[in-house]
Amino acid sequence: MLIQNATLADGRRRDVRVEGERIAAVERRLSPRDGESVVDADDKLLLPGMIDAHVHFREPGFPDKETWASGSRAAAAGGVTTVVDQPNTEPPTIDGERVAEKAALAADSLVDFGISGGVTPDWDPDELLAEPLFALGEVFLADSTGEMGIDADLFTDAVAAATEHGIAVTVHAEDADEFDESVRPSSEDAGDGQRQGADERTDTDAWSAFRTPEAEHAAVERACRVGEELGAQLHIAHTSTPGGIDRAKEAGVTCEVTPHHLLLSRDDLPELGTFGRMNPPLRSEQRREGVFERVADGTVDIVATDHAPHTRAEKDAAIWDAPSGVPGVETALPLLLAEAREGRLSYERVRDLTAATPAAVFDLPRKGRIEAGNDANLALFDPDATREIRGEQLHSKAGWTPFEGWDGIFPEWTMVRGETVYRNDEDEAFGDARGENVRSG
């Protein structure tokens, strides 16, 4: 394929030749060859496919929420060409057998993938860390979906073991000791259910009040201290506060921000209700603005989605009963491009946040940039073609989104290693499963 007149993220106009799975040339002007398919990308934006370093595709264990087939379709339809699945499935990915099981399921993926290993008291570090893992973690410093929270000693042991094997550690940084128990229902003398205490809150903001900003600050501090002592490569997942970001960067630790923490705040909870419950929770509008500033100015390294789908029926519950998590793999890049179109981010910054920097942080040398020799993981966008986001039109099994009614810029097509896996035409055609484990071979 020859893609002519493409506008790259930095504004350069270039022709891009794809041969087999790789980008063969990026030049000002390339002449078509016999038999070569030619795409005129005039006035279109060509980006490296997003590397989403944080998804929960729910297999094995919860195929009603998401499968590798459905999750990767959502990814491809959003311009994502590589995903990294987290270990809190059922059973959790804590040994070689579970890694192999998940890799077999991932054969259904349209997009490239990584598999991260988990830590529980029952994990097998020698066996697990010998597998082709993307990273160790998300390592949970407090319970979240899957109840994989671990204590301080096990965390230190896990970081030491991963560092010995040269594997990065991704940290879910919340300290349960800093949760505000006064707003949570008491379970004493609960009988058939939880007893409502005098101070119990049942409003939609209660989850944010319970899992405090200080819980993130304390956990980031602890993780960074352990990382510094052991010389580890740490990455802080879904930082949600300016303080958490600043502490990570002071320690030379990379961090990510999700689209929901970047664009939504506690002010949105009256409308979102329990569909806005996630871990860490939404923060104040002031903190959200501080996070956005750090994303825009280059302080934050990565945007990753923490794509965590649950069914509508599960989410439509009381604030203390609904599961935490929101879908996001299909809408992340479209939302960021809409922000760039409005001048709040640059297209170069979007490229760096979603592709170039994730590739650099996690050692994916053939991904993340449109350069000769790199994998042809590409997505083409019309920056003037916005589309209203509707949950029922997305491809995740969740069928809903916290960004209902927002504008996004979706890809016209998405390519994984030289083959088109998604084309936004009348049939919304998907290609065949193309995914390969980025750590294999």
UniProtKB/TrEMBL annotation:
Q: Which residues bind Zn(2+) 1?
A: H54, H56, E138, D306
Q: What is its EC number?
A: 3.5.2.3
Q: Which residues constitute the catalytic centre?
A: D306
The keyword Hydrolase appears for this protein: yes
Pathway assignment: Pyrimidine metabolism; UMP biosynthesis via de novo pathway; (S)-dihydroorotate from bicarbonate: step 3/3
Quote the record's binding site residues for Zn(2+) 2.
E138, H172, H238
Domain Amidohydrolase-related, chain residue ranges per copy: 46-386
Q: Which cofactor does it need?
A: Zn(2+)
Q: How many cofactors are bound and how? A: Binds 2 Zn(2+) ions per subunit.
Segments for region (Disordered): 173-203
Q: Supply the alphabetized keyword list.
A: Hydrolase, Metal-binding, Pyrimidine biosynthesis, Zinc
This entry carries the following GO cellular component terms, namely: cytoplasm
Enumerate the residues binding substrate.
H56, F57, R58, N88, H310
The UniProt catalytic activity note for this protein reads: (S)-dihydroorotate + H2O = N-carbamoyl-L-aspartate + H(+)
Q: Which CDD domains match?
A: DHOase_IIb
**HAMAP family for this protein:** PyrC_classI_A
The free-text function statement in the UniProt record for this protein reads: Catalyzes the reversible cyclization of carbamoyl aspartate to dihydroorotate.
Q: Which family does it belong to?
A: Belongs to the metallo-dependent hydrolases superfamily. DHOase family. Class I DHOase subfamily.
UniProt protein name: Dihydroorotase
Q: Which organism is it from?
A: Halococcus morrhuae DSM 1307
**What broad taxonomic lineage does this protein's source fall under?**
Archaea, Methanobacteriati, Methanobacteriota, Stenosarchaea group, Halobacteria
Which gene produces this protein? pyrC
